[in-house]
Amino acid sequence: MIGKILIANRGEIASRIIRTCKKMGISTVAVHSEADADAPFVGLADESYSLGGSRVQESYLNVEKILEIAKDTGVEAIHPGYGFLSENADFARSCEKAGLIFIGPKPEVIQQMGNKVEARKKMEQAGLPLVPGFSRPLIDAAEAAAVAERIGYPVMLKAAAGGGGIGMQAVSNEDELSKAFEGNQKRAQLFFGNGDMFIEKLIEKPRHIEIQVMADSFGNAVFLWERECSVQRRHQKVVEEAPSSFLDEETRNKMGAAAVKAVKAIGYSNAGTLEFLVDADKNFYFLEMNTRLQVEHPVTEEITGLDLVEQQIIIASGKKLDFTQDDIKKAGHSIEVRIYAEDPKTFYPAPGTITSLNLPNGDGIRHELAVHGTSVVSHFYDPMIAKLVVSGESRDKAIERLRAALDNYKIEGIKTNLPLLLEIISHDAFSKGDTTTDFIDKYIKKLTV
Amino acid sequence: MAELKASMAGSVWKIVAKEGQSVTDGQDIVILESMKMEIPIAAEEAGTIKELKVNEGDFVNEGDVLAVIE
Fold first, then answer.
1. Which of these, A111, A221, A391, A410, is most buried using a 10 Å CB contact count?
2. This prediction's pTM
3. Are residues B35 and A343, on separate chains, in Cβ contact within 8 Å?
4. A171 with A279, same domain?
5. Would you identify the CATH topology of the domain B2-69?
6. Closest Cα of chain B to A381: distance in Å?
7. 10-residue mean pLDDT series, chain A (449 residues)
């Protein structure tokens, strides 16, 4: 088993990984930016080292410095968390070259699945259903218009290397398309260094449902059920739950079996997630694959009783999965909400200093925190400062507990989305499971401006 | 005379207009960057930029004056 791990990340996910390492008796090394010198994760690790500046290019994306610290501290492996270097094939290759284990899949698989066009092709070959659209990057806006005409409006314009909703836009006619194409292409080039765009049919009123997979390097793969992440704003997830309130057992098993078949076909190992859109008739369409641990992994842990970080480390250590599909249970219901430092009405970022933090406690409540009671929430990084995960024996019970927990969650000194979260989970439509991806636009309008 | 104010805390990523320049209602003047998000701050009325109060790279708080337009 791996004995020492460097965590190339920050915030709640760094703390989360360190927690599992401690449980497994693994030593940890944290790396941090100047802005994060006093962050909770830094204090939790056995050793911690500064990466230099506060900007991500100087710190959490500084591959050379991270590898230098890894070498100097004698770690055997690097856990990249999510975001930053977690889906960077070059980084995974650099780790291999430096004799370090990258806790994730092989670099060539990361590369393949990181490009939406490539991923689409591979998944189609593996038999996954795809949203009707285009399988190679579009040449220009005129070609986009021709494809849109063929598959029919509305369509979704997407950046091949996109993520976090950047370079993505729903378009309902040719006029909108020609305006949107250039803008999104420029944005994609700016953010990802790749302006390739493609287009697909817009599935109306869909659910966003994803399948968690775990695969070892011996060809064994299982699925750990699904997560529904349909409540989103600006294509960013806000509420995630497991299991989905919408799927029936037949569709659930069909999606799981398709996901397992697909990951086996690409030689995948470690934790991964296949994201799907599911329409009103429960037809499912492959969207993309995330080749890393996801933000919302705790809800899967809560219903299966598995520690996903522990499983990642076991697999990365070269061991076989010690369970089969039949061993994986699905018990109760779990809901995660992402707590953001942002204005709940405008969704604008709200960095600042936390002056007081009071967390709710009780049965079925789990916290994943990036901050403490006096943390400075920097404008340099993502606005997510905490996750609240609440579980219960049924969905109704989980919602009831979540509502009480949110009522008692107090953060002072900065604006947060807590009022928005409370509004969402208290809505009658949420209780009924009417959670298509337009949920916030449809039901929570009064909070948005 | 109108003050153009920051609608969120963040750093000034780009200034896309110059002092003395005529601007129209809705024209972007400054682009702020915070927490991986860019927010363009646009003129709320037509006029001339009398003074830019910030430089690229500056950190501003919500409500800080970015420019004066007359």
1. A391
2. 0.90
3. no
4. no
5. OB fold (Dihydrolipoamide Acetyltransferase, E2P) (2.40.50)
6. 5
7. 97 98 98 97 98 94 98 98 96 98 97 86 92 84 91 89 76 91 84 84 92 97 98 89 97 97 96 96 94 98 98 98 96 98 90 97 97 96 96 98 98 96 96 94 67
